[in-house]
Structures are given as structure tokens and as C-alpha cells.
Amino acid sequence: MEFSIKSGHPEKQRTACIVTGIYEPRRLSDVAKRIDEVSDGYISNILRRGDLEGKLGQTLLLHSVPGTLADRVLLVGCGRERELGDTQYRKIISQAILTLHETGSMETVCYLTDLNVRGRDIAWRVRQAIETAHSALYTFDQLKSKKNTARRPLRKIVFSVNSRRELPIAERASREAQAIAAGIKLTKDLGNLPANICTPSYLADEAKRLCTLHEKMSCKILTENQMEKKGMNALLAVAKGSEQPPRLIVLEYKGAKKKEDSPIVFVGKGVTFDSGGVSIKPASNMDEMKYDMCGAASVLGILSAAAELQLPLNIVGIMPAVENMPDGRSVKPGDIVTTMSGQTVEILNTDAEGRLILCDALTFAESYKPRTVIDIATLTGACVIALGKHAHGLYSNHNPLTNDLLNAGRFSGDRAWEMPLWDDYQDQLDSPFADISNVGGREGGSITAACFLARFAKKFQWAHLDIAGTAWSSGGKKEKKGATGRPVSLLAQYLLDRSYEIHSPVILTPEDFPPDEIDENEGGEQE
Ligand code: BES
Ligand code: MN
Ligand code: ZN
What we know:
Largest sheet: 9 strands, mixed
Structural class: alpha/beta
Number of domains: 2
Helix content: 25-40%
Low-confidence stretches: 516-527
CATH class of the largest domain: Alpha Beta
Bound molecules: ligand BES, manganese (II) ion, zinc ion
CATH topology of the largest domain: Aminopeptidase
Strand content: 15-25%
Radius of gyration: 25 Å
């Protein structure tokens, strides 16, 4: 999909389709008003006849509207104007995009970015519009022998801004959105791939492929032997029952001015299939455990976006990748292992494997002398019960980091919710035989999992995102089954915010903008 930004009057656009909004009840948005004027009341006539109320997500496609140069005008219901918030805006955009895709318009000039969304500026509206358009059109058909492609698919979307002054800011948002959307797509594709294809070595190859695309990126893949030498026995214990050899995938992106700047480290759980091991899971929905590597896939998505945007930061991605299977060689309930940190763990339940691979990955992260470590994991079913599919569970040992992540979530619409990491929960992890047990009982299951990890994250500012409820959708009335690409948007925003701290965003003026990109005769000024 090609995206661009433009400022210009709707009636001057030679395009397959102009898109604009109608508020409820039958109230024209500014751009709809303008089209109404040039067409001698064509739109208001139609609304009066009752063809469109303006309810959220309603659409009406008009052909050859008088006074315009476009083939079509698509009216999209926006609901009541004062109720137009983030969620409504995303719904409006995705309805519009899907309708265009199905009705044969291969390109469009979309004025929905001009809508007045409560508290949101043009940068946000463009960023969200592009991310939403991408996600509306996402399909995963790599493994279908017959692809269900539209006859005349939507190929090009031009989003409009109100005035030329907004162009540079919107352009920048567009660049950011496209890089993030590409990262999200990578994460979704990897999540959706089945475990017979997406193995630990497959993830390692993906990391290598990413490195070939970006100069400032390099990668190291640790094999079983190398991990043994480092004493990563908790990680290795999980891999023991599988035919698939484990990998510790390490990606480094060096974008900071000073190579030696301490990095931000992401650690992503990469269990390519979680059968539960000897503590085997029930058969129903076990297929969904192919998504148990979504933490690792998110790390790849985030690094891809960061490198694409050439962020001025040093970033490291660490992805412990294993398959958790029952077998004669598997780790057994009651087995005790010594982690890389030296702490011993009694593995009471082999299905609590995420924390076992993450604890060694966190200790490994210490060698990078990180500024901040953020781990991302489909860690507990308990988190799904606590927060459902809307918010990631957020735990942190450092308050400012909590706030930065909560804020990045609010901006990106990929929200997290803070959970307690109080010491009060720690004694649920006591073991009679080892330093710590890998399960803490039914109560507060997501919290005790985080408390387990906290014991391995004492040497740095650390946050943990439990994405068990948010990384994929089991499918239902409204949503397709599949990976969501979350929390790539949140964490990419977190990185953008850190980048702005270094280089405060340059505000360009229209004079800084190359004049040939503004199509004067087609568009013209709109101020
Ligand atoms: N990958 C699962 C967590 C999970 C479960 C994610 C359901 C999404 C949906 C994790 O490895 C796991 O099995 N956790 C156990 C921990 C328990 C044994 C302490 C769980 O949540 O049941
Ligand atoms: Mn498990
Ligand atoms: Zn798991």
C-alpha cells in the first residue's frame, strides 16, 4: 500500500474516490459541506431523503457527484461529533478502507484525517489512520493455495491535511506510521505461522534476514552448547523435550551517536509451541500455543521499526527461543535447575516455562549494561482473566519507566495497565528444596509470574509486559482469529519518545518543504 499526504480542496481532486465524514444526525463535516456547496446541495438532498443517518461506521457510496472531479464520493458515518474519540476514529477509518477495497476504488483521497478527534492533533490522526488502514487490510494467506484477492484492490491512499502548515508534521507521522505498520505486520506474520514452520531456528533466520536489511543492525545466535557454557540451565531445561534445538537470538541496533551509549534492551519470550511439556495442557485450543512466541516476534517488529526510522538510540533485542514438549528427555515436575544467575529453581510445573527461559535471558541482558530492560511475554492465562484482551499487564521496578510506558500506550492506543509488583506476593514462590519455585499457586497468577522475573531483574530498570491476552485474538463475531501485532505500536512509541528527548522534534515550516510535492493545480490552498 502506498500512502501520501496532501493539502487541497476536495472538488479539485482527480481521484477514484473522495472520502469524507457525516456526523449523526445527518450533519455535514467541513469537507462534506464544501462538496455540498460545489454540488448545489447534492449531499444535503441525499441526507434529507434519509439515505444516511451518520451513525458510526455507516457508509454511502455516491457516483459522479456534480461539481467534483472524482469518480466517487464515499460518505462515512462518524457518530455524534462530540463523542468522536480514539476508538470511534479508528472504526471510521477502518470502515472507510474496507468499503473502498471492496468497491473497486484503487486509489483515494481521504479527508477523514481532518475530523475533529477529541484531544488529538494532526500527527496523531495521520499516524492512527495509517496504522488502522494497514490492520484493516491485513490478511495472512501465505499458506492458502488459493488467495482471495480483490479484483480491483485499493493501492494508494492520500490523506489530507487542512493546511500546508501541517504538511511537514503529517509527513513525519506518516513515515513513522509506515515503519511501525511494517513492524506490526512482521510480528503478525510470525505469530500466525504454525509451529511446524516457525521453529526456534526459523526465528533465528528471521533475525539474520532483518540484519541484512539494516546496516546498523547485527545479530548473534547462541546455540545449545554456547548456552550451556553460560549456565543457562533454566532455559535449556525447557528445550530438553523437543526435537527442535533451542536458540538464543540477539539483535543489536546501534543508532546512537556514541556507540558505547548504554542500550535499551527488549527481551521477548519465544516459545514456538507450548504444549505444557509433561504438565501437558488440555487438547482444546492447544493450537493457539503456536502464538507463544509473540513476545519474540514483537521484539523483531520493534527493532525493524526502529532501524527503519533510524532512531538515534542503541537497542538490543534478546529472544530466547524454544519449543516446550513432553518426551522421555523432558524436564519433570520436581526437577531442580541452577539458573545463569546462580539461583536454583524447583520446576513444579513444566507449563510455567516462560519464566524459565526469560530468567536466563534477563541475566544474560546484564552483560549489555542496559539503561532499561523491557521483557514481553505471553506469560500467564491469569493475565487474560485479570485484564482480558484490551490491556497488557504492566509490571515494573521503576516508576518513571511505568509512566513512560503507560503514556506511550495511551498515545498509540496500544494500552497497558499497571499491576502490583509488591514483595508481599514473593513468598508464594517459596520452595522447600530450592531458592525459588516456578509457580506461585492460583492466586494472583500473573503477579507471581512477574515476581519470579523480578528476582532476575535487580540490576537494572526493568518492566515486564504480560501480553497473553493482547497478542492474539481467538476470533469471534467482530475479529478474525490471529496475531494482533501488539505491543509493537506501544513500544515503538516508547522509543520515539526517547528519541525526541535526544533530538527535540524539528518543527519544519512550509518553506522547508519541497514545492513540487504540493500539487498546486490539482489541490490548491485550503486555509
Ligand atoms: N503460554 C502460557 C500462558 C498462556 C495461557 C497464554 C493461555 C495465553 C493463553 C504459559 O506458558 C503458561 O502455560 N502459563 C501457565 C502458568 C501456570 C502453570 C502457573 C498458566 O497460565 O496456566
Ligand atoms: Mn506454558
Ligand atoms: Zn507458554
